[in-house]
């Protein structure tokens, strides 16, 4: 009996999603963003930055500043834009998860934590405030916090008094998925019972945009919006840079059910392996990407054939889309890969960089809730080498139980999450 109790106590916990929030170029919350995808509305637009020596012409920008209700000025004034977007997303997630209640009504706050991520943090504010100092001789005393990658994590922890595990994920375009995956592992292994996890990004200044544009990574299309972001298309020519944030509330399933929470889905498996190959190009051997997918499936305890839908990284760059297609085939086997529908919702959002993976995790949850697979927009001229079922241009109603979210980042970061309906 004692052995049985010990084994039960040490068994991996099931991890569920009870809330989520997002601020993207598609909408100021997760529901608006999903509705825009369903209406085939892109979140990016034409913007000429040629005067700054920038070649790319399309960007996903958020017009409005998020309303940070009930956030003390001592927190709010120290936040760069990416962190404000992140905090607004966290507020939406917490409202969805707890309503008008507070986490301490159900948890010891030492069991509650936060992992927020970003790829490039508050570069815009850092540059602006230093320029202001040089011009006026006066500088903001909060400049340090604007450039601090952990400012969003600190703000989330402070606002709700989350005194448990805290960390900040920085892994370029895989950041958001890794934040959710690491939080999943913490709860699964008993280190935490409730975690807020996600990421934010906002790069609007000419200097920040130029830094990426000069690499040749951004879309080179000069005028036609349907060719600016067209994943898996023969016309693809780089990614559209966007700003945004997305945060999820994860909980231990037993505790969430005991408090009467609504279960929105379950994180079942997580993979994270490194290319260790190049700063920007994916590894030609695809070993790490394949292992990332297989490990996530193994941890979830499912066969590849049980996947109903894959939300691909799908950046609309020549190298990634082909490499990703080949990696999926290698990981799942050709027969299963060709039979599994995939799509890239970056064709609507553009690339949210650090926040891409956490937002696309929310997309997977919304797809499961509505039982509809979002299409890959602008896929009018498919690349014959990218020959999987990438759901071109028309959303597809389907019965789904299990999805896979893929994210790959500069520096060889690879991450995958298996997400189910959470029965």
From TrEMBL:
Which GO annotations describe the biological process of this protein?
fatty acid biosynthetic process
This protein's pathway reads: Lipid metabolism; fatty acid biosynthesis
- Which GO molecular function annotation, any one, does this entry have? 3-oxoacyl-[acyl-carrier-protein] synthase activity
User: Could you tell me which CDD domains the record lists for this protein?
Assistant: KAS_I_II
Among InterPro entries, the record links this protein to: Beta-ketoacyl_synthase, Ketoacyl_synth_AS, Ketoacyl_synth_C, Ketoacyl_synth_N, PKS_Beta-ketoAc_synthase_dom, Thiolase-like
Q: Which SUPFAM superfamilies match?
A: Thiolase-like (SSF53901)
Task: Kindly state which keywords UniProt assigns to this record, in alphabetical order.
Answer: Transferase
Sequence ranges assigned to domain Ketosynthase family 3 (KS3) in this UniProt record: 12-421
Family, according to the entry, reads as follows: Belongs to the thiolase-like superfamily. Beta-ketoacyl-ACP synthases family.
User: What name is this protein filed under?
Assistant: Beta-ketoacyl-[acyl-carrier-protein] synthase family protein
């Amino acid at each position: 009996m004692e052995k049985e109790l010990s084994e039960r106590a040490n068994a991996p916990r099931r991890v569920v999603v009870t809330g989520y929030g997002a601020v993207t170029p598609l909408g100021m919350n997760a529901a608006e963003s999903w509705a825009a995808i369903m209406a085939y509305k892109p979140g990016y637009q034409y913007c000429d930055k040629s005067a700054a020596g920038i070649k790319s012409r399309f960007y996903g920008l958020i017009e409005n500043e998020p309303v940070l209700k009930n956030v003390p000025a001592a927190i709010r004034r120290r936040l760069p834009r990416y962190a404000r977007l992140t905090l607004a997303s966290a507020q939406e997630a917490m409202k969805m998860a707890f309503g008008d209640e507070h986490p301490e009504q159900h948890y010891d706050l030492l069991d509650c934590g936060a992992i927020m991520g970003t790829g490039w943090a508050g570069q815009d504010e850092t540059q602006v405030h230093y320029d202001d100092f040089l011009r006026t001789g006066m500088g903001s005393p909060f400049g340090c916090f604007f450039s601090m990658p952990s400012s969003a994590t600190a703000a989330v922890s402070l606002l709700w008094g989350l005194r448990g595990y805290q960390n900040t994920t920085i892994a370029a375009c895989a950041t958001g998925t890794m934040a959710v995956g690491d939080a999943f592992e913490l709860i699964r292994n008993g280190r935490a019972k409730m975690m807020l996890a996600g990421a934010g990004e906002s790069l609007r200044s000419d200097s920040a945009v130029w830094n990426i544009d000069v690499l040749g990574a951004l879309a080179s299309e000069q005028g036609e919006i349907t060719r600016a972001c067209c994943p898996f298309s023969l016309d693809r020519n780089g990614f559209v840079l966007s700003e945004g944030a997305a945060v999820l509330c994860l909980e231990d399933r037993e505790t969430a059910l005991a408090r009467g929470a609504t279960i929105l889905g379950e994180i079942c498996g997580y993979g994270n392996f490194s290319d260790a190959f190049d700063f920007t190009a994916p590894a030609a051997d695809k070993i790490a990407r394949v292992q990332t997918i297989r490990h996530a499936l193994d941890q979830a305890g499912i066969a590849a054939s049980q996947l109903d839908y894959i939300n691909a990284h799908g950046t609309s760059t020549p190298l990634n889309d082909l490499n990703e297609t080949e990696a999926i085939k290698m990981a799942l086997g050709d027969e299963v890969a060709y039979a599994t529908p995939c799509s890239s919702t970056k064709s609507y959002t553009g690339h949210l960089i650090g926040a891409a993976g956490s937002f696309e995790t929310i997309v997977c949850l919304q797809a499961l809730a509505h039982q509809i697979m979002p299409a890959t927009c602008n896929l009018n001229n498919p690349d014959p080498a990218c020959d999987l079922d990438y759901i071109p241009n028309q959303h597809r109603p389907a019965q789904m139980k299990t999805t896979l979210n893929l994210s790959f980042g500069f520096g060889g970061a690879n991450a995958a999450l298996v997400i189910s309906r959470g029965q």
